[in-house]
Amino acid sequence: MPSQLIASFQINRLSILAPDGQVDESLMPELSDSQLLQIYELLCYTRMADQRALDLQREGRLGTYPSSLGQEAAQIGSGFALRAQDWIFPAFRELGVMLCHNYPLELIYRFWTGDERGQQTPEGVNIFPMCIAVGTHVLHAAGAALAAKYRGDDMVAAAFLGDGGTSKGDFHEALNMAGVYKLPLVVICQNNQWAISVPRQTQTGAETLAQKAIAHGIRGVQVDGNDVLAVYQATKEALDRARNGEGTTFIECETYRMSDHTTADDARRYRDPEEVKKWQERDPLLRMRRFLDQQGLWSDGDQAQLELTLKERLTRVVKAAESFAAPNPEEMFRSTCHQLSSRQQEQLKECLNGRT
Amino acid sequence: MAVLNLVQAINAALQQALESDDRVLLLGEDIGKDGGVFRATDGLFEQFGDGRIIDTPLAESGIVGMAIGMAVYGLRPVAEIQFLGFCYPAIDQIFTHAARIRARSRGRYSCPLVIRTPYGGGIKAPELHEESSEALFCHMPGIKVVVPSTPSNAKGLLLAAIEDPDPVIYLEPTRLYRLLKEEVPEEPYLTPIGKARIARAGQQLTIVAWGSMLELVMRAAENYDAEIIDLLTLSPFDRETLLASVQKTGRVLIVHEAAKTGGLGAELAATIAEEAIMSLRAPIRRVTGYDVVLPLPLLEDYNLPTTKRIVAAIEELLRY
Question: CA of B244: how far to CAs of B227, B279, B290, in Å?
Fold first, then answer.
């Protein structure tokens, strides 16, 4: 028997907004001017909220914190496309996604001070607790997607992870499940090129991360992750397909972690500063700003006004985050299981007495 | 009342849970058309269809991880892992997520998930098919661990596990699947989690066991005035029943098939030492599996507790 080509695959990369602010009109998503401005404001808010967190950490007012600097487009582009009824399964660097869906920033700050109450998602916000364990939560999104399919709910589950997460077994098990059951699921990878000190080329021998989807029978696409319009468009398409019963899409957003892994890390130990400089030119906020300028939608005055408004908002948020009463040790007992065992009751008593 | 064996009782519980609550779904390997490798889900695929009896790819972490997502979303999934030894790849999901979601979100989300899995030795099966690593799960706060010992409590405990708002590991003593038969009430009922059962009342010593070992202990202690406690829930275990019995008898024997070091027997013994040592007339004794990697069938009988070892321990305790 002859050797035959029995399957072939390709990976597409989408980019719409160039670093100079020019857009490919033929690919432009359907977004109104006010939506474009909303996206830009969210980009700015995410960056300022992130910077504020770093400042608070340096002042000893916040614990270890993972900055999202440089990844705002990947987060806002995808977060803005998701609807309120969709469920979001974040990793731990999705500040922008969470802000898109009205997750209270004071809770996020609270969480990074070491307070579990920061993960008490408000009712009506469908965001799962942040997942510190890498890659394992993609399965939860797959399970929720299967549950939604069973119930006939108009819901798409969206899981976020990084390039490092795509090396994990659970990521592959989740994508495999997604292929088998044609799940209404979108898996969004912020490929920020670095998993702490391990660069992208050490993470996998695959040419793209997007192609990891193919072995699992789902769609994989790559987008310019610093292009908020491309990320939005790719997410929108993936959501539409999921809703139409066409299954899961894995989106690789190629972006860059401009900051250290967390405030406990020093990336200068392992990373060439020239590389960082190169990515600075591809800044996601700068190119959106240039685009809006060219469209006549934004001015220096608007920028100054926005920054002032956001600064005031952040002051209020920080105040709210720091006005929480100290957590009660009883919480750690009460939230372990729905009822206390007799031993836990005794331990709780001991714990409370030990403190007084 | 129908006379059922333990697998049939599990099947009946699953059937009733599926019938009465449309949030209940089953997922696992070979549980659909095949009815499960031990037939625990026999006939359920035909009755409830592939939307609720879900055959999965061969991926244990995937099964448990998916079930966690389903549970948090509001369903009541019952996952089957084919053998306890195959739970090891899923321990990450169980410990990292199922056990912690309630605490992590401070009660905003919970994880009402049941993981059923056959466990224990005496069935002459290949490697990893006879593990008894229940203590691993008992050490992790946030999950419950239950082990039935008879067809009746198998049904009641499984229904209770499915109703429980937290993750429950439901360990099925494989050796007993078809060994014991008894009348099992046809209507649904709950065997409460956290409560032990006095399998036989007695005065001279207390013997604690669970699962397959309970059956062994009942035989071994036939001629002694022993109070036999069937623990049923390993975590959180029923301290009150245990201590009350020890205070009455003053002698304790703990029997489990898992390795001795770090086994659940150690926790029970420590609890008795801390809270009832003044009632003891004799040292606490444990008859357990040895601290060895579980052998294949040819050496298995050397490792598992025997009636002979149990009788010797009883005799020794009664000399005090």
Answer: 11, 10, 29
- pLDDT confidence tier of residue B198, bands split at 50, 70 and 90: very high
Residues B169 and B115: their CA atoms lie apart, in Å, by 5
pLDDT, position B2: 94
B236 contacts B194 by C-beta, under 8 angstroms: yes
Give the residue from A133, A143, A203 showing the smallest Cα distance to A173: A143
Assigned token pair, A8: 């072939």
In order of A44, A131, B19, B69, B75, the CA distances from A71 in angstroms are 12, 18, 48, 27, 34
How, if at all, do strands A194-195 and A157-162 pair? Answer: unpaired
Q: Residues of A with CB below 8 A from B79's CB?
A: none
Catalytic residue among A47, A110, A216, A261: A261
**Cβ pair A116:B106 closer than 8 A:** yes
Of A67, A11, A24, A16, the residue nearest A227 (C-alpha): A16
Token pair for A7: 């399957």
CA distance A262 to A240: 35
Please report, for residues A21, A59, A306, A308, the alpha-carbon distance to residue A296 in angstroms, rounded to integers and kept in the order given: 12, 40, 16, 21
Provide, as residue numbers in chain B, all residues whose Cβ is less than 8 Å from the Cβ of A338.
Answer: 102, 110, 164-166
Ramachandran region of residue A41, left (φ > 0), alpha (ψ -120 to 50) or beta? Answer: alpha
State yes or no: pLDDT of B131 exceeds 60: yes
CA distance B103 to A331: 8
Decide the pairing of beta strands A87-89 and B114-119. unpaired
The reported pTM is 0.97
Q: What is the pLDDT of residues B32-85, one digit of tens each?
A: 999 999 999 999 999 999 999 999 999 999 999 999 999 999 999 999 999 999
Shortest distance between the Cα of A215 and any Cα of chain B, in A, equals 14
User: Is A257 designated active site?
Assistant: yes
Helix (H, G, I), strand (E, B) or coil at A8: coil
* CB within 8 Å of A350: residues ≥ 6 apart: none
A13-25 tens-digit pLDDT: 999 999 999 999 9
Tell me the nearest-neighbour CA distance from B28 into chain A, angstroms.
12
What is residue A30's predicted lDDT score, i.e. its pLDDT?
96
